[in-house]
Amino acid sequence: MVRKLKNLCHFFQALFSLFYFRYPAKDLKVIGVTGTDGKTTTVHLINFILKRAKKRSAFISSVGAQIGDQEIETGFHVTTPSSFSLQKLLKKIKDLNFEYVVLEATSHGLDQHRLLGCHFFIGVVTNITHEHLDYHQTFKKYLAAKAKLFRGVKFAVLNRDDESFNYLSSKCKPSSRAQVEGAQSAKVITYGIKNKADFTPKTFPFKTSLPGEYNQSNCLAAIAASKALGFEDKLIREALRDFPGVPGRMEKIDEGQDFSVYVDFCHTPNALLQTLETSRRLLAKSQKLIVVFGSAGLRDRDKRPMMGKVAAKGADLAILTAEDPRTEDVNKIIKEIAKGCRKAGGIEGKTFFKVSDRKKAIKLAIEKAKKGDLVVICGKGHEKSMCFEKTESPWSDQEEVRKALKEKR
282: which residues sit within 8 A by CB, 6+ positions away? Predict the structure, then answer.
């Protein structure tokens, strides 16, 4: 009952915001991207292609909002802004005569009506795996929240490799009542690497500097959306080739050291698995893979041991640390992650360490790294703060890595 009342409040807030800013999305082509992992990269890819096509395009993602040359902060740990903030941004984008906006759509944002009135032209999904069950309670409800993006879209870009495909494709068809009222089905466009789809590496060959199979999938999602907009193959391929990447997504930190260090935002079991598998492919057999990560407080607890298990299997050394513990005891969070490490055969003090101070954890990883090894710092990515209790303190994984590298050198 309490949750229903809260959701009703969210709806009226969204409705008020929509009327207050006079429904700006009606004059824009809005492309929404949802999924558990890969949303931000896909948003930036699509926006990069739009700009290469000389279209006036803006984006709103977890990194922030960009309208032309103007970069706007959307807040700490925010992906989809509040309905009022979002409509305000869309009004600004419309008033500056932009034609397109690429928007990162979270399950929270969809469930809480923050995206009411966005009138999506294209809906894109990357993948749907375990995440946010602290809020949605069940995976079924989480999946249903994601599916809301595809209501009324003209084009639905779906991942043929993901288990969500059949469910989402069924949601792209209007209900019987809606059909009677003249509603049309969305045109489904598929992409994939493992399964037959409209866009695959074989049907649409391309080159990208982004590492990993998961980024190949993100590129294919962007390709499918771009083709729905009618862009030429050559333009899309050139944009993908030149795309520089996204801050905090497998971002390489180089201070002249003889081993590799990357900062990545991955904070789900699937994302951590993909990051470690990609990192492993960059190493020779004798070289070590070291990972530093934690799990956010007051968030999905079930994923903590799952991530520990992934790290124990995928890395040679895992250092468990803080990642926005909020009001939870950081050592308790680390213990829950460590349970998964032990279940996968990890040995404390040998294959994994518990270091609650993230600065010390990063320093330890850098100290342990030898020539040719690879260190990946996960969970914070582009973020510039870390939350302890209810206070946001300045933080940057990139800065701490550089400090540690300089001290070691």
Answer: 211, 260, 374
Helix (H, G, I), strand (E, B) or coil at 125: strand
Q: Are residues 357 and 230 in the same domain?
A: no
Could you report the per-residue pLDDT of 7-23, keeping only the tens digit for each? 788 889 999 999 999 99
d(CA 81, CA 56): 22
pTM of the model: 0.91
3-state secondary structure of 150: helix
Report whether 200 contacts 193 (CB < 8 A). Answer: yes
Structural domain boundaries, residue 179? 2-242
Residues 122, 126, 131: CA angle, nearest 5 degrees: 125
Q: At what angle do helices 39-52 and 233-242 cross, to 10 degrees?
A: 120
Of 176-190, 269-283, 352-366, 377-391, the poorest mean pLDDT is in 176-190
pLDDT tens, residue by residue, 127-140:
998 777 777 779 89
How many domains are contained in the chain? 2
DSSP string, 216-244: HHHHHHHHHHHHHTT--HHHHHHHHHH--
Which domain CATH number covers 131?
3.40.1190.10
